[in-house]
UniProtKB/TrEMBL annotation:
Lineage: Bacteria, Bacillati, Actinomycetota, Actinomycetes, Kitasatosporales
Keywords: Kinase, Membrane, Phosphoprotein, Transferase, Transmembrane, Transmembrane helix, Two-component regulatory system
Residue ranges of domain HAMP in the record: 41-94
Name of protein: histidine kinase
One Pfam family per UniProt: HisKA
GO MF annotation: an example: phosphorelay sensor kinase activity
InterPro entries named in the record: HAMP_dom (IPR003660), HATPase_C_sf (IPR036890), HATPase_dom (IPR003594), His_kinase_dom (IPR005467), HisK_dim/P_dom (IPR003661), HisK_dim/P_sf (IPR036097), Sig_transdc_His_kin-like_C (IPR004358), TCS_sensor_his_kinase (IPR050428)
Source species: Streptomyces violaceusniger
Length: 314
């Protein structure tokens, strides 16, 4: 004879167990939820501080930075990345403000000169040498046009648009530049390292690269004592173009500064010769836009050497 346990007794035991365990389970759930809330809140507290500080930063106070937590975790790296981005924005904004101030100064000088000349002519029309007055006004107007053209080109370069992938022969460009200034420029034979003659073809904008070369030769012609020489050579995967003069050269301490906008090492002479202070800055920006570099060295002729390096076309 088999005896079966009562289902009523089993149900009663199960109900009692559930009634006793339910409060403990609910308490455990609440404890885990509260602990999770505290831990997550503490972990995200630096993020909240970073968010508050970041939302208060405007273009007027880019010197401010978000707090960096001490823990070397992902939030620490995020804060450092945000501060590095703010550093770049601050430098860019400072550069832009300085550029606008310098541009305003450069444009104000010829405008003031033209205004003064016109006022003087109007005050004494009968005693004015009109051809001389018009010539002076045109000279200052030419300077205004040169500064405006350079500013427009720099604005386009600042957009960082990739130049076209057109094959450009730097040797041919250099030869054209020499033909435009006979007697003032000379060109050495195009050669590859090792002596074999070879075409120096790069990819990019022919107009921009021609402007780069013109700016380099114009700068060299203003400072040389005799003539300016251009050398184009191929070294493996690079094409090098060197512009040499026999002038006073550029001191080592100024070799980076000459690429800054509106920089003149000899301000009076540069203004007299029509320099805007933007030529080397434009050349440097064009070189970087084409994946190359532009550096200042000491020329074997005793003056300055401006060396352009660009990747050679495949």
């Amino acid at each position: 004879m088999t005896v079966s346990p009562s289902t009523t007794s089993l149900d009663s035991a199960t109900g009692l167990l559930l009634r006793q365990a339910a409060p403990a389970a609910a308490g455990l759930v609440l404890f885990v939820a509260g602990l999770t809330w505290l831990l997550v809140g503490r972990a995200l507290r630096p993020v909240a501080a970073m968010r508050r500080e970041f939302t208060e930063i405007t273009e007027r106070d880019l010197h401010r930075r978000v707090p960096v937590p001490r823990a070397r975790d992902e939030i620490h790296r995020l804060a450092r990345t945000m501060n590095a981005t703010l550093d770049r924005l601050h430098r860019a904004m400072t550069r832009q403000r300085q550029f606008v101030a310098d541009a305003s100064h450069e444009l104000r000088s010829p405008i003031a000169a033209v205004r003064a000349q016109l006022e003087l002519v109007l005050a004494r029309p009968s005693r004015t040498d009109w051809p001389v007055a018009v010539h002076k006004a045109l000279r200052d107007t030419d300077r205004l046009q040169a500064v405006a053209s350079d500013l427009l080109l720099l604005a386009r370069l600042d957009v960082r648009e990739a130049p076209p992938k057109t094959a450009v022969d730097l040797g041919a460009l250099a030869a054209e530049e020499v033909r435009r200034h006979p007697g003032a420029l000379t060109m050495d034979q195009l050669a590859e390292a090792g002596g074999r003659e070879r075409a120096a073809v790069v990819t990019g904008s022919r107009v921009q690269l021609s402007r780069l070369l013109t700016n380099l030769t114009d700068n060299a012609r203003r400072h040389t004592r005799t003539t300016v020489s251009i050398t184009v050579a191929v070294h493996g995967g690079l094409v090098e173009l060197a512009v040499d003069d026999d002038g006073p050269g550029i001191p080592e301490g100024d070799r980076e500064r000459v690429f800054e906008r509106f920089t003149r090492l000899d301000d009076a002479r540069a203004r007299q010769d029509g320099g805007t202070g933007l030529g080397l800055a434009i050349a440097n920006d064009i070189a970087h836009a084409h994946g190359g570099t532009l550096t200042v060295l000491t020329s074997p002729r005793g003056g300055a050497r401006l060396l352009l390096r660009l990747p050679r076309a495949a």
